[in-house]
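Margin note: ligand = adenosine-5'-diphosphate.
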Amino acid sequence: MPDSTPASPLLFPVTPPRIVDVLLPVAIGSAYSYRVPEGMEVAPGDIVVVPLGPRQMLGCVWPSPGERAPLDPAKLKPILRRCAVPPLRPDLLALIRWIADYTVTPPGMVLRLALRHDENAETGRERTGVRLGSKRPQRLTPARARLIEALGDGQLRAKAEAARDAGVSASVVDGLVDEGVLETAVLAPEPAAEPPDPDHAAPELAPAQAEAAAALCAAVESRSFRVHLLDGVTGSGKTETYFEAVASAIRQGRQTLILMPEIALTQAFLDRFARRFGVRPAQWHSAVASRRRAKVFRGVAEGEVSVVAGARSALFLPFRDLGLIIVDEEHDTAYKQEDGVHYHARDMAVVRGHLAGAPVVLASATPSLETEVNARRGRYRRLTLPTRFSGALVPRLEPIDLRREGPPKGRWIAPRLAEEMAKTLEAGGQALLFLNRRGYAPLTLCRSCGHRIRCPSCSSWLVEHRFRRRLECHQCGYAMPVPAECPHCHEPNSLIPCGPGVERLQEEVQALLPQARTQVLSSDLSGGVERLRLELEAVARGEVDIVIGTQLVAKGHNFPGLAMVGVVDADVGLGYGDPRAAERTFQMLHQVAGRAGRAHVAGRAYLQSYMPEHPVMQALVAGDRDAFYDREIAAREEAFLPPFARLCALIVSGTDAHAAQVHARALAACSPFTAEVRVMGPAEAPLAMLRGRHRFRLLARSARNFDLSSYVRAWMAAAPRATGSLKVEIDIDPQSFV
Ligand code: ADP
Ligand code: ZN
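Resulting structure:
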């Protein structure tokens, strides 16, 4: 979390009349000046349409920095029109500016995240409603009678709704309209979201929940910024607890933002919200249709929408009166945007809470190291839910030492794991096998010449997807049919798959337990999100015995019958020189294991590992979370890594490897010298080629209290320009090091 204080609320200096600055959602350094035509009033934050070259573009009237050089209004292009949406408020403008500064990105690129709504999408079809008039029908059929009765209250209803209520077809409605029995009128526009009712179905809270909820409600009522860590094991009832804070904000008439990873997959969450508050929250993520988004955008700006559940981009919505921000699963890596503006939505949520004067709740069973350190130092207030709500025990974890009791060659499920699965099924339970590898096999090798098939544009192996009969690159999406002969030595039938993916694991399970109903769940499932939802529901209903899944199933899904989890390769991710490897592995395995035994059974989890003595495995097996954090925090401090230091990565890429390397070296050579910053590299990136671009990395490191963003900004200003295909990406607080 960036701990320098965000800029004070923006000042709006008086600009000379008739000229204003407009920030455009493009990668240019600053706002452009435009003339305000006669008769138009604009103020900072207003969304306007302006000409840019031959194009017209949405932009935001921007507070000017102060004195401007005298400009002749007659020489400036005019603003074309002001859009009929509420202006972006000062706290959002301040957030945009703050993020642009912090991430060393042109402010227009950050504005673009806030303007992601299509003005034209909003003017949808008008809806026609019907109501009873004074005329009587010439002929009264039973259907007509039902319809007239249903409309007996004289209220205006949408046509489809009237037909549905009466159980008649639309033609019955049309018939009565034609006869003049029903009148038509334009319906008021559909609201962006129905208002949630804070008292719809308040639960009986367990004592620890009640205590945490009281603290959160008090924070909401205090209307002031403070960060809370809602720290509780999986299934402890964190959601139910923070819902009480949401209820508090609703009662105050203030708005709530709930950020979630991979929102598109959490239908279950929306239903749960509806059970508590009577209606679903407004949603905001990339899969929401543009017309709907336009509605939500306006509803949020006008204050009509009181709760938004959204993916990280919801952070940029123009809330009118934000009273609470919740970041669910705050440790999730999906919060870090890795292209365009490299921002971390959890950290920026804290900044937004600060600017809006609203409390922030971070919820997790395995907090990020940053958050844990902030909580330990008292910067964040920790609220703990120590036990599962159902009273079920948190699953016991057992290591399976692959060196001593591993599976036979060419198989991946150890005999003990297979035995436990069989027992679980016999007892009527379900099992989950976890392997974070999509497809059939991660590598295809020629047994004759040793050739390995790699992607032509990335430094990665092609992954066999047997079901689709293709080899695919998981970096760039390149795909080819599985060749009949080795592309190198042309030996026919010599290609063999190496290593397991979830598809291959399914084969093995079917051979071991032929009666078991198995299902692979990964992002490759055809049929998209809807199909995945159906499959998850089928699993929850017990229609599947063994789920074989990637990290997709590790997150937040509730499978009441799941009695055991087997982690096929607990070591994946450890030992790759990534400073966050231990943290990620711990979080992932803890979360996967937490899927077991959520309802009433005590769950068990087995970790297949070649290094069961590794401290991460030891901490997991001992169920000693604090031991893991103690050790990892000490290691980070010792190695001067975040959160004890700041990092900023620069990734230089280009289609020509030599040119990219030369540019990366030139950047290193011109880094401003100060004893406070150490610049490391350039070094070839672990993912040396991606989508045909060769990549080199530099890493700058400073103490926490040093303004590394300003340093990098000064550095880039002095650096040679990246020309041709060269590109420099700036990644502040990097989460990924490939
Ligand atoms: P977490 O978010 O900590 O993993 P959840 O909020 O999902 O935990 O709660 C786990 C289960 O317990 C859910 O099925 C939830 O509905 C139930 N639960 C939690 N708190 C309550 C409560 N106070 N009353 C009834 N059910 C609860
Ligand atoms: Zn590729």
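Residues 1-9 have pLDDT under 50 and may be disordered.
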